Amino acid sequence: MNHRLKRIAQERQEMNERIRLFFRERGYLEVETPILVASPGMEPNLTPFETVILEPNRKKHQAALITSPEYSMKKLLGNGFEKIFTITKVFRNEESLGGMHNPEFTMLEWYQQGADYHACMDETQELLQVLGFQHPIERVRLRDLFLERVQIDLDHIDEKGLQEVCQTHGIIWDHSDTLSDLFYRLFLEKIEPTFKGRNLFVYDYPYYQAALAALTPDARYGQRFELYLNGLELCNGFTELNDAVQQRERFNEEALERQKLEKPVFPIDEELLRLLPSMHTPTFGNALGIDRLHMALKGYTRIQETLLFPGDYLFY
User: Fold this and answer.
1) 259 within domain boundaries
2) Residues 187, 190, 191, 197, CA torsion sign
3) Helix, strand, coil % (nearest 5) of the chain?
4) Can you tell me the distance from the alpha carbon of 316 to that of 299, in angstroms, rounded to the nearest whole number?
């Protein structure tokens, strides 16, 4: 027997059992959601795996593998489910085969109606404690990080200002870059590298970085957070947007951005928009990568060390 593989399987089984017990003790219902869907998402930075469903009469349906179970989970919320979680495989193309990425990975996603993203941060930290992570976790607004590291105020900076800051710091940018692109270039180059050696919740992302999140009262930021453990990004959580009109506008904006990037544009999920208004205000959701969580808890440095069949093993 390969003892390394057996150890990985045992560690993952124990972690999954503790996760399930954590949520069941808090009144959550575990649900199963589809892997194959017609509308996998609109996020411009994600590339789904596309496929075609063929019926026996040769009728074709365009489809894709999910990048997240989010749409299906929200439909369940709109149908009256209050507290739900799932552990599922998700798929993202144009990802590295190794390091911190794998095209197929496991995601824990959970939602609770009647609570916001601050409550979600609390519950995420409680989950980590149950899984054995006892270190303190800072909570820092993204605006404060930008003020500290690059001396800009996200409350007031515009596209031209971000271009100038990129230029000042020697960050290559393109005239086709959107406000979101410029922000992300700065974040990756000047902000995220400072997270190494720190455990922190980074919260309140600019509105153009929060397509599915409710906005803060001043409408400048999305009620969104990400968790980093020693520089490793683990999850993306937020207070959910339940305004169907606003959500359609954001979907349309993302569709235009995908067109500019020459990426496929999938149909808007009309059932999701129909059910969104039935969700409570507030409602939170969180998507946490279990393979990366496994890395953080056991001190592994590559995602391959947590997988029985990593992508680089399969193709090289």
Assistant:
1) yes
2) positive
3) 40, 25, 35
4) 25
Total count of domains within the chain? 1
pLDDT tens digits for 212-271? Answer: 999 999 999 999 999 999 999 999 999 999 999 999 999 999 999 899 889 999 999 999
Q: List the 36-37 sheet strands across, edge first.
A: 36-37, 60-65, 50-54
Q: Identify whether 306 is part of a domain.
A: yes
Contact status, residue 46 vs residue 257, Cβ threshold 8 Å: no
Q: What CATH number corresponds to the domain at position 224?
A: 3.30.930.10
In a domain, 267, yes or no: yes
Pairing of strands 138-141, 104-113: unpaired
End-to-end distance of the chain based on CA atoms, in angstroms? Answer: 23
Residue 138 CA to residue 234 CA, distance in Å, equals 15
Question: Looking at residue 262, what DSSP letter applies?
Answer: T
43: in domain? no
Torsion of CA 89, 92, 96, 98, to 10 degrees: 0
User: Backbone phi, then psi, for 24, in 5-degree steps?
Assistant: -65, -40
Range of the domain at 207: 3-36+67-315
The strands making up 83-91's β-sheet, listed across from edge to edge, are: 29-30, 83-91, 104-113, 283-289, 232-239, 221-229, 199-206, 138-141
